[in-house]
Amino acid sequence: MLTEHRIKYFVIAMFLILSFAIHAIGSLKTGIRSMFYNKSVKVLSVAKNFYVTNDFVVDVYKVKRANNIYIEIYSTDSGSLIQKIQFPDSYDTYFYSEGVSSNLFLDDVDKDNKMDLVIPLYNKSLEAKLHVLSYNELGEKFSLLSN
Asked: Are residues 47 and 32 part of one domain?
C-alpha cells in the first residue's frame, strides 16, 4: 500500500515537472524567436516627386512598424523628414478604381485643384477606411481631411 502512494506521488510529481518544462520551453522558444524577429520597417508603398505646390515637392512613404502604419513625408530636395502621421492598429489594403489598384494614391478629393493623399486601410474590426490627407498651406503640413 505504501508503494501505491509512492507511485501516485511520483506520477503527480512527474506530471508537474513535465508541465513546467513544457511551459519553460515554450517561453524560451518565444524569447529566442523574438531575438531573431525582424522588427524593421516595411515599406508598403511610395509616391515619388509629389508636387504639393509648384515649388514644394515631396516623396511619400506608406510604411509598417509593428502594429502601426505610418505615412512619412520627406522633402525631395533635402531628403529630410517633414512629417510622420500614424494610423494605429491599422492594416494595409488596396483600393480599386477605374481599372487601377493601389494602396496609396493621389486624387483631388476636396476639389480645390490640389492633389490629396488617399490612404486605404482597415482596422481590427475589418472596417475599410479611406483616409485623406490634404496639405494645409497656412500650417505648412498635411492634415487629415476625412477618414
From this structure: no
Does the pTM exceed 0.85? no
Number of domains forming the structure of the chain: 2
| 140 lies in the same domain as 107 | yes
pLDDT tens by residue, 101-115: 889 988 888 888 888
Residues 47 and 82 in one domain: yes
Question: Could you list the residue range(s) of the whole structural domain that residue 28 is in?
Answer: 1-37
Long-range contact pairs involving 85-92 (C-beta distance under 8 Å, separation at least 24): 85/133, 85/142, 85/144, 87/119, 87/121, 87/131, 89/123, 89/124, 90/121, 90/122, 90/123, 90/129, 91/121, 91/122, 91/123, 91/124, 92/44, 92/62, 92/64, 92/121
Same domain, 22 and 55: no
Which residue, 66, 67, 76, 68, is CA-closest to 46?
Answer: 76
Q: 5-47 pLDDT, tens per residue?
A: 788 888 888 888 877 777 777 666 666 566 666 567 889 999 9
Q: Do 71 and 138 reside in the same domain of the chain?
A: yes
Paired with 57 in beta bridges are 51
